[in-house]
Write a sequence for this structure.
């Protein structure tokens, strides 16, 4: 008993030391800023004056728009840190780090349970393997871009519920030998409730049944003492949900076409699947060859696979991925640990790395799938190296990972340095270059911003978004080059417009009318938006791009004095997408053009819709605050009362 207690105390103490080390290496990153997707998702905290009562609580938690479920559990978790917006990012990041430590603890527990299935292992070996596997995952620098990216708490919560579900499944699996009814009840609870909670945190949790099926078919199946699962239960709880997931993933391409581009992407389901063969292997490369700068978030420079041999690495990657999966299935009985680690990794990516119209790559997608990647290696080390050597090696690797993560975390704690490092690492990424330039500009380093964009334009001369950003910064720092403005006009003829260009075109319209912007006129804005509109393939009013392009061309026409044409364009935009944000901006431009009556009609419409309480989700996130709309109405009413109404406005 004394020996058992000593071993338990030693294991617990070792894990507590790893948790403390994890907190220490992540601490520098707690001082970082909100970034990118944090803003659109978290600013809903401030709607209606903050989350202060049941109505605002319900509107916030159940008004999410980041996925089909709205992810209410994730939104609920953000209330732990703030109930209004803007807020302090420190508390959000602190909670993320604590959640990461909790997930590491769950992984340690699950790994112990998995190793319990390997009866040849002594308890001390199980503990050592579990400590190293969970410790390396906890301290891996590649996960900094998930843990310190506040909005990716969604991925972390989904992983947490999946790990809890797997833990309960394994606990119930052992119970089957002595108490079958209790065992199946626990397993059903683990998989069923785990799937629901994980999915309502982030939708990739819907793959839990598939991940458990991989576990059951490998390590569990290899244990001769455990009885086989009840076939009916297995089909209902594990197999049918996995088949349903596959059908759901295939539905879109089958109905809309494998070779038809997604409405908001410049690639098709076929091209996405081909590209993912390369992407899932690139994740593995970054996992097994870690970097001191941690993970990335800019992958817009990733070459899309347009065919199985375009590029040729697509074919090689497809062969390797299919080979790994096939090998794991064939060898699942003789090499169960290795088979489990590989199949679990690919099963975790079943949703985000197949046919769903997501962007091609984000590092947070392997937060859960990476959990057992080191398990086969650590297993081999435990079986083949002497105790002193393997312990020394384990401590050395843990220390190395801790140092790398501390470096990456320190980088995430300094937003200015972070963006510059990303720009240097990804010279072909338009997003990394423009993000760094915007950071420099916002911090008063105007000439550095201009120079960075000029150099980026030399490397990527044919990107419309980069060149437009370049001339916008030029116009605010001495004047836009006529040659560069002409190049933007030329590139706008080729398009294609993307919905992510919305804010960029807004900057164009705003800058064109500003006295501080030299070299870009309202006429230029009108020409650029007209060329984008004419070159667009989105001719259906149902398309988001149709609404955006008519909206911005209408504003440009209105600003340039072309009232009649501008109003017709804006009317088409509102018929296509009756966005309150869009309508309020139109009201502002109408007021600037002297169309006070029309501006008031639009603003009052927006006010009525906001007061109705019917606006929720993405529509609410994109809507203007009610107090700003009311202020606008008062100002325009005063202007309207103080000036004679124009004949044109009377007629309308």
């Amino acid at each position: 008993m004394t020996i058992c207690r000593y071993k338990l105390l030693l294991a617990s103490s070792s894990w507590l030391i790893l948790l403390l080390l994890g907190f220490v290496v992540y601490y520098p990153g707690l001082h970082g800023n909100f970034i990118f997707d944090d803003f659109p998702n978290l600013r809903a905290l401030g709607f209606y004056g903050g989350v202060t009562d049941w109505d605002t609580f319900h509107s916030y938690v159940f008004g999410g728009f980041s996925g089909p479920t709205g992810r209410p559990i994730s939104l609920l978790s953000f209330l732990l840190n703030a109930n209004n917006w803007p807020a302090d990012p420190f508390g959000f990041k602190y909670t993320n780090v604590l959640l990461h430590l909790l997930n590491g603890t769950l992984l340690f527990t699950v790994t112990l349970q998995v190793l319990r299935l390997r009866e040849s292992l002594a308890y001390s070996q199980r503990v050592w393997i579990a400590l190293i596997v969970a410790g390396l995952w906890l301290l891996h620098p590649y996960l900094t871009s998930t843990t310190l990216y506040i909005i990716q708490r969604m991925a972390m919560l989904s992983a947490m519920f999946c790990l809890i579900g797997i833990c309960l499944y394994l606990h119930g699996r052992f119970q089957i030998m002595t108490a079958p009814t209790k065992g199946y009840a626990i397993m059903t609870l683990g998989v069923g409730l785990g799937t629901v909670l994980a999915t309502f945190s982030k939708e990739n949790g819907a793959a839990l049944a598939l991940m458990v099926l991989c576990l059951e078919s490998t390590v569990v199946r290899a244990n001769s003492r455990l009885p086989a699962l009840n076939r009916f239960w297995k089909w209902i709880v594990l197999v049918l949900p996995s088949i349903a997931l596959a059908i759901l993933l295939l539905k879109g391409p089958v109905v809309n076409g494998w070779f038809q581009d997604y409405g908001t992407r410049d690639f098709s389901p076929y091209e996405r699947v081909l590209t993912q063969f390369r992407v899932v292997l690139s994740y593995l490369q970054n996992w097994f060859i870690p970097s001191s700068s941690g993970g990335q978030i800019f992958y817009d420079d990733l070459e899309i696979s347009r065919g199985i041999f375009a590029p040729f690495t697509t074919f090689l990657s497809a062969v390797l991925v299919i080979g790994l999966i096939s090998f794991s299935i064939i060898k699942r009985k003789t090499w169960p640990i290795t088979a489990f680690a590989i199949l679990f990794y690919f099963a975790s990516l079943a949703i985000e790395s197949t046919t769903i119209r997501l962007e091609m790559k984000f590092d947070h997608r392997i937060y859960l799938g990476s959990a057992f990647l080191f398990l086969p290696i650590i297993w081999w080390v435990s079986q083949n190296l002497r105790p002193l050597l393997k312990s020394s090696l384990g401590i050395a690797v843990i220390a190395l990972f801790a140092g790398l993560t501390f470096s990456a975390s320190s980088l995430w704690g300094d937003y200015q340095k972070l963006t510059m490092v990303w720009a240097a690492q990804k010279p072909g990424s338009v997003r990394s270059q423009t993000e760094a330039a915007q950071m420099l500009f916002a911090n008063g380093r105007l000439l550095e911003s201009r120079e960075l964009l000029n150099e980026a334009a030399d490397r990527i001369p044919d990107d419309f978004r980069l060149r437009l950003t370049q001339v916008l910064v030029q116009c605010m720092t001495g004047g836009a080059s006529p040659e560069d403005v002409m190049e933007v006009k030329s590139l706008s003829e080729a398009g294609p417009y993307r919905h992510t260009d919305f804010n960029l075109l807004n900057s164009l319209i705003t800058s064109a009318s500003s006295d501080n912007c030299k070299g870009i006129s309202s006429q230029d804005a009108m020409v650029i938006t007209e060329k984008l509109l004419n070159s667009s393939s989105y001719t259906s009013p149902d398309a988001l791009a149709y609404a955006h392009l008519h909206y911005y061309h209408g504003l440009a026409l209105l600003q340039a004095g072309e009232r009649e044409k501008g109003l017709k364009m804006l009317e088409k935009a509102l018929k296509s997408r009756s966005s309150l944000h869009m309508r309020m901006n139109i009201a502002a431009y109408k007021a600037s053009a002297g169309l006070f009556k029309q501006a008031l009609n639009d603003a009052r419409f927006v006010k009525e819709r906001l007061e109705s309480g019917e606006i929720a989700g993405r529509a609410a996130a994109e809507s203007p605050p009610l107090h700003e709309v009311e202020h606008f109405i008062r100002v325009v009413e005063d202007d309207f009362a103080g000036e004679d109404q124009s004949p044109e406005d009377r007629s309308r």
Observations:
- Residues 89-116 form the longest helix (28 residues).
- The radius of gyration is 28 Å.
